[in-house]
């Protein structure tokens, strides 16, 4: 018997990703009956960052909570007030440097409550292979979990936005037994390593992207292949595109007494 059911989606890329969520989320909600639906929104608007209009669009489609990543502040002028709203559903990584000198908008840890269920959501970003200089995510999660032990909630989940698969594995071991689910976002490719650790923590290196299937992680090949062949960044991909069929990637999770008891990959390919 579960205490909480979750539907979690990785990076939703651009207009195509938003359309796919609107199309497929209603039937997924009917099938799985989740208590919360969580999605990463950092590629939501033209591939870089969300704006309130598109967040509201996904809320109407049935998404309850949004996490972020390295593009969280790409549209800060449009999204800062939304992120600062009390009980805003949009999180951003908790381990960006905040100080008395400069305070970034939003928050990286928040308790979401619905129908008597208490879900703590934590958003982290890696300092390896990404451009932002951030506080060590392993030390940050220690601080957070000291203040927020698992027994206080029905579940705790961690979106770890990173490049390295090894780092994601290490993070899962680091938080083992202290969170219900730790998963990766950012690399956009769903990994085949969904697992439940002996401690009851569910883990997956990357839960995948929702967007254009035949693409370079959401963007057109014609912009990126010349970049790889020529060795220069002079070429760039067209980010906002509806090209061809799409793919919906995520996971379904059941949690009991804070422990993950069921972890199921979701991958829907849209053939057109």
**CATH architectural label:** 4-Layer Sandwich
CATH class: Alpha Beta
SSE pattern, N- to C-terminal:
EHEHEHEEHEHEEEEHEE
Number of self-contained structural domains:
1
CATH level-4 homologous superfamily? Metallo-dependent phosphatases
Unreliable residue stretches:
none
Q: Examine the coordinates and then state which fold CATH places here, giving the name of the CATH topology.
A: Purple Acid Phosphatase, chain A, domain 2
Number of strands: 12
Strand coverage percent: 25-35%
Distance between the termini: 39 Å
Largest β-sheet summary:
6 strands, mixed
Overall mean pLDDT score? 92
Tally of helical segments: 6
Task: Calculate Rg over CA atoms.
Answer: 18 Å
Shape: globular
The percent range for helix content is 25-40%
| Sheet/helix structural class | alpha/beta
Keywords:
single chain, 272 residues, alpha/beta, Purple Acid Phosphatase, chain A, domain 2, six-stranded mixed beta sheet, 6 helices
What this model shows, in words?
This protein has helices at about 15-30, 50-60, 75-85, 135-145, 165-175, 220-230, and strands at about 5-10, 35-40, 65, 110-115, 115-125, 155-160, 180-185, 195, 200-205, 210, 245-255, 260-270. It has about 270 residues and is α/β, with parallel strands linked by helices. The protein has one domain: Metallo-dependent phosphatases (Purple Acid Phosphatase, chain A, domain 2, 4-Layer Sandwich). Helix 1 packs parallel to helix 2. The radius of gyration is 18 Å and the shape is globular. The model has no long low-confidence stretch (mean pLDDT about 90).
């Amino acid at each position: 018997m579960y205490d909480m059911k979750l539907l979690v989606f990785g990076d939703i890329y651009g207009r195509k990703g938003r359309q796919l969520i609107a199309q497929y989320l209603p039937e997924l909600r009917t099938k799985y009956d989740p208590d919360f639906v969580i999605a990463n929104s950092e590629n939501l608007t033209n591939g870089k960052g969300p704006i309130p209009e598109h967040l509201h669009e996904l809320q109407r489609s049935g998404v309850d909570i949004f996490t972020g990543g390295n593009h969280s502040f790409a549209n800060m002028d449009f999204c800062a007030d939304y992120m600062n709203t009390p009980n805003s559903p949009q999180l951003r990584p908790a381990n960006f440097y905040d100080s008395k000198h400069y305070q970034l908008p939003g928050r990286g840890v928040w308790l979401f409550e619905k129908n008597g269920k208490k879900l703590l959501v934590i958003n982290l970003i890696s300092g390896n292979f990404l451009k932002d200089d951030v506080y060590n995510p392993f030390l940050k999660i220690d601080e957070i979990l000291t203040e927020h032990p698992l027994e206080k909630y029905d579940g705790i989940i961690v979106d770890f936005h990173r490049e390295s698969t090894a780092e994601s594995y290490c993070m899962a071991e680091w938080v083992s037994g202290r969170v219900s689910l730790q998963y990766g976002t950012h690399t956009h490719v769903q990994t085949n390593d969904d697992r439940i650790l002996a401690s009851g923590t569910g883990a997956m290196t990357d839960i995948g992207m929702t967007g254009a299937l035949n693409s370079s992680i959401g963007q057109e090949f014609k912009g990126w292949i010349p970049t790889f062949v020529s060795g220069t960044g002079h070429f760039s991909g067209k980010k906002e595109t509806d090209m061809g069929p799409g793919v919906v990637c995520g996971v379904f999770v059941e949690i009991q007494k804070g422990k993950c008891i069921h972890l199921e990959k979701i991958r829907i390919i849209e053939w057109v």
